[in-house]
Amino acid sequence: MNSAKTSTKGSRLALTNARLLDPSNKLDQPGALLIENRRIADFGPRLFNEGVPEEILVVDCEGHCLAPGLVDIRAHLREPGAEHKENLRTASHAAAAGGITSIVCMPNTDPVIDQIALIEFIARRARETSTVKIYPAAAITKNLDGEELTEIGLLLEAGAVAFSDADRAVANSLVMRRALAYACTFDALIMQHPEEPSLSKGVMNDGELATRLGLLGIPVVAETIIVERDIRLVELTGARYHVSHLSTGDAAQVVRSAKERGLPVTSAVAAHHFALNENAVADYRTFAKVSPPLRGEDDRLAMVSALAEGTIDVIVSDHAPHDQDSKRVPFAQAANGIIGLETMFPLALELYHNEQIELLDLLAKMTINPAKLVGLEAGELKVGAAADLTLFDVYAPWRIEVESLRSKSRNAPYDGRPVQGRVLKTWVNGRIAFDISTEG
Amino acid sequence: MNAPTYDNLFPHRHLLGIVDLSAGEIGFLLDISDSYVDLNRGADKKQTKLRGRTVINLFFENSTRTRTSFELAGKRLSADVINMSVATSSIKKGETMVDTSMTLNAMHPDVLVVRHPDSGAVKLLSEKINGAVINAGDGSHEHPTQALLDALTVRRRCGRIQGLIVAICGDVLHSRVARSNIYLLNKMGARVRLVAPPTLLPTAVDRLGVEVFHDMRTGLVDCDIVMMLRLQTERMRGTFVPSTREYFHFFGLDSEKLAVAKPNVLVMHPGPMNRGVEIDSVLADDITHSAILDQVELGVAVRMACLDVLTDNLRANVANEES
Q1: Which of A67, A161, B158, B237 counts the most CB atoms within 10 A of its CB?
Q2: B115 interfacial to chain A (CB closer than 8 Å)
Q3: CA–CA separation, B213 vs A391, rounded Å?
Q4: pTM reported for the whole predicted model
Q5: Is B142 within 8 Å of A214 when comparing Cβ atoms?
Q6: With contact defined as beta carbons under 8 Å apart, do B319 and B3 qualify?
């Protein structure tokens, strides 16, 4: 899907002196990797032990971590329709700087990605403008209205990798039952935004803080109810069902028990739901307004443990860019969303540095797990696979400066936050998509 | 220009909420308010303290009573008072708000008195303003001058606030008056009870330092003060309350329900009242119990005090910058 305008056939690149990390092979050891014809030609601890042949270009990784490029299966890229907030090109720059080489974009664009022409539009625009790989998720229902199913089979053939009504739940139980049943025909993945709409008219987490701020709350049960219901429908239909982003310990418990019963259920969490709690919206900070809302500290900790024990399979950015006009308004009127392509990885690495989760387990949730879920050949070090790689210094301390993020929008509540772990280089199809030494 | 008189005893540029104030600062505002009550009762009601000052009443939500009260307060202190009602269309009203505030700020008002239907909107607006901002009610968040005038009413009628039992009854969920009063009464040492059906109480409200009751007959026992809240007409039918009739039967204040309170109990209401919905008409007019008109009267004094103190702070800042 992605660019390779001039032929690099025959060109070879050796990445030496690296700490090779690959969760799918449980690999964590020093070694080197060879890129040839834009693909991984070889890798391992003994490669180039005798030195690198002269005709091969060498990048010395200086002992830093070399891992498969990250796969983010939930981002709102705003093209087409809201290019003043983001487009595929600006999003791809942010993604590459965040170590991400494959993105699944959500269909809540204008027009909605609910027909083949739009799938083809995204593919073409990605080919022409993006430095990373972009795959569209198509809508489950036409125009995200929650009523009529989209052409799930044809959309899959055209290149949709999953189905989601983006930031809306499929609320009607009959429609959801039919979506799941119909998706079985094609083994399509249905991704649900877990919020029961009639209980989700609020603007932040329900509780003491909402009461003090005089803001309408969204209770935890809004999430639990929809996940519980959907899992009953999964039992009925056998479809592959994915919770787009959990925010509560109760809903994580529901997913856990579904997995224990062997149901084809998976779940993801957005970085902000384990990096922040509801206190981030105190003082009416609209930059921390997201859907589902940031929850209490107990729920944040529940997200961390659900990640560690495997109830949550995937970490997503839920990148949702908004301009100033959408956020410099009273809290209740402000748009939902936080940009996250560039910050997902360093925020996730906090869990490793806090010794809450092993590095390979953490990487799996941003590489092989999401890639497998949506059927991408990505997210692992494999001979013959596309050379989508990220090189990062897992220890480097730095502070997030929102102004220097690469997204077209600046709506992130992380300004000044100290983090540890920084992407140094990102390759997509063996070509450099980000290099901190030239643009950091 | 007048020299500052209060020596920065109230170290806040804006008055956005009771939650930001200490008991001492609340007491200080009430003391200044007391001094204006006599002025308001005299024949000559004018004072020159705010001469040359500009006060803009910026109302994004309809209000006659509060706006009039602030307007009188400003005029009695000789300020130039301008009223602006900004029609809020349901879409894009936020943009209007920030733009309007920046436009007004360029005209150098000394005080902006702002009411807005969204919680937090007045704070957002205050970030764009060089002068002082008084929150005249923002969404369901705070209405600090109402709580101050309620406190002044209680203090003048009962001689104290400390130790009194105060029941706040009705639609606490949507009420900024209730929130400001809960904070103020707690800071001043009163015991606060809430009496309402669960559908009209916000989540975890017990964490705000109140006792919660769902029955007037138990909630009003031994109360010194009963504060009734207004129930918006559009909320009387539907999912909050089934009907006006049912609401009045269980939660409307009448003399029978009031009988379990202290004999000299004081009944208050922020107005405008829905007679026969949250309060019995006869009771509302019963001058031995009802303090409702006192509240209106003292409201002007409290708002004079707030304008006085906040402009005094502006004077102090100018004096500091000049020295």
Answers
A1: A67
A2: no
A3: 60
A4: 0.93
A5: yes
A6: yes
